[in-house]
């Protein structure tokens, strides 16, 4: 198994080289980009969307195990926002069922940039109030390609209002996954993935760039903390 971030075309080639083709199923996450699902379609396979782990935002091994059928040929876990998927559990599932497991989404970066982002993330973790900061599974390293928090309250309306208020205070932020892949027109599936859909409604990516100054980080903290108290009072 080559566990590395790959462009979608290389992921398609890996599926082809693994013998995945028409009539097969490929288990993919819905929370994130459509690259994995698109690659499955390009080789003639059917993407099967499963739910994510609510803490890591990566594909849930339990959901993968429950979705395996006689037609399943591969699993494509995505390393999301810089948090690695639970590859040991997924590889065990793959070995048990004879499935190819192809990790996707890891990015090779200069060590200095990763260390500075991790330091910025640690500062935000320690200072932010009123939002739920990222969780990291034991024994893995989060590189914080994105610093994604959950905004408490009533889901999408409160999250979007929170984002608008932050931007008005000069804090750049964005919704990392506005629509889960299984809810897009191209890949529409009539199924419920509760953790995925909740994350799409609650999550917001805050700036954590390696080049940020302490003053810029303090601005993020001040803006978020002022708004967080208000959101808690109306939730």
From TrEMBL:
Cofactor: pyridoxal 5'-phosphate
Keyword Hydrolase: no
One Gene Ontology molecular-function label: transaminase activity
Gene Ontology biological process terms from the UniProt entry: polysaccharide biosynthetic process
Top-level lineage group: Bacteria
InterPro entries the record matches: DegT/StrS_aminotransferase, PyrdxlP-dep_Trfase, PyrdxlP-dep_Trfase_major, PyrdxlP-dep_Trfase_small
Keywords, sorted A to Z: Aminotransferase, Pyridoxal phosphate, Transferase
Keyword Transferase listed: yes
Family indicated by similarity: Belongs to the DegT/DnrJ/EryC1 family. L-glutamine:2-deoxy-scyllo-inosose/scyllo-inosose aminotransferase subfamily.
PANTHER family found in the cross-reference section: DTDP-4-AMINO-4,6-DIDEOXYGALACTOSE TRANSAMINASE, TRANSAMINASE
This protein's name: DegT/DnrJ/EryC1/StrS aminotransferase
Organism: Streptomyces palmae
């Amino acid at each position: 198994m080559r566990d590395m971030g790959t462009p979608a075309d290389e992921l398609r080639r890996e599926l082809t080289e693994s013998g995945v083709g028409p009539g097969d199923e490929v288990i993919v996450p819905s929370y994130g980009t459509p690259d994995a699902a698109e690659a499955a379609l390009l080789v003639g396979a059917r993407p099967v969307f499963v739910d994510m782990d609510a803490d890591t935002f990566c594909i849930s091994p339990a959901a993968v195990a429950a979705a395996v059928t006689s037609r399943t040929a591969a699993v494509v876990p995505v390393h999301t926002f810089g948090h690695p998927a639970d590859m040991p559990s997924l590889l065990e599932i793959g070995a048990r069922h004879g499935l190819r497991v192809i990790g996707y989404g890891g990015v090779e970066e200069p060590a200095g940039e990763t260390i500075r982002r991790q330091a910025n993330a640690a500062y935000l973790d320690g200072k932010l109030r009123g939002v739920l900061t990222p969780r990291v599974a034991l024994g893995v390293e989060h590189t914080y390609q994105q610093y994604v928090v959950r905004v408490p309250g009533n889901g999408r309306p409160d999250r979007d209002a929170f984002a608008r208020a932050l931007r008005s205070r000069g804090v750049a932020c964005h919704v990392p996954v506005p629509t889960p892949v299984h809810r897009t027109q191209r890949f529409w599936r009539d199924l419920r993935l509760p953790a995925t859909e909740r994350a799409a409604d609650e999550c917001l990516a805050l700036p954590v760039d390696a080049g940020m100054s302490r003053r810029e980080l303090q601005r993020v903290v001040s803006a978020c903390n002022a708004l967080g108290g208000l959101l808690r009072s109306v939730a």
